[in-house]
Write a structure and sequence with these properties.
Layout: H1 3-13, E1 27-30, E2 36-41, E3 46-53, H2 59-69, E4 82-86, E5 93-100, H3 107-124
Antiparallel strand pairs: 1-2, 2-3, 3-5, 4-5
Helix pairs in contact: 1-3
Length: 130
């Protein structure tokens, strides 16, 4: 299925009739809890990611996050999440990324992926948040 159509279908199903992928760069969705989810077209996949400010996060906290992403310790039906970091100290931001492709590339798949990503963020990447 076409990436743009998947995002449009997701928007229609979730009360966002004007939701569309940006021509360049990510489309940003702001959540009620202050979480931002970004959507971006890849080669043949939809990239769904959350940015998590993590100023002065401890190495132990990062280790816990990385362990939660380890596919050897998650159920087979879990969505694989990749983690990247940018900046350091007070400017450290983590990116939690899911790749939506293949048979999961649908509005329903997008809903499931976003739900999984936000739940993962809430459980494993709450650095300094209440």
């Amino acid at each position: 299925m076409n990436l743009r159509q998947v995002v449009a279908d997701y928007g229609q199903r979730n009360g966002l009739p004007d939701l569309a992928l940006a021509d360049r760069g990510p489309t940003v969705l702001a959540g009620q809890d202050g979480a931002h989810v970004l959507l971006e077209a890849g080669e043949d996949e939809l990239l769904i990611y959350a940015l998590v400010p993590a100023p002065y996060v401890s190495p132990e906290a990062l280790l816990g996050l990385l362990q939660a992403c380890d596919l050897r310790h998650v159920p087979p039906q879990a969505w694989p999440i990749q983690v990247a970091a940018r900046g350091q100290g007070a400017d450290l931001v983590l990116m939690l990324l899911l790749r939506l492709k293949g048979q999961r590339l649908s509005a329903q798949g997008m809903e499931e992926a976003m739900s999984w990503l936000l739940r993962f963020r809430q459980e494993h990447a709450r650095f300094g948040t209440p």
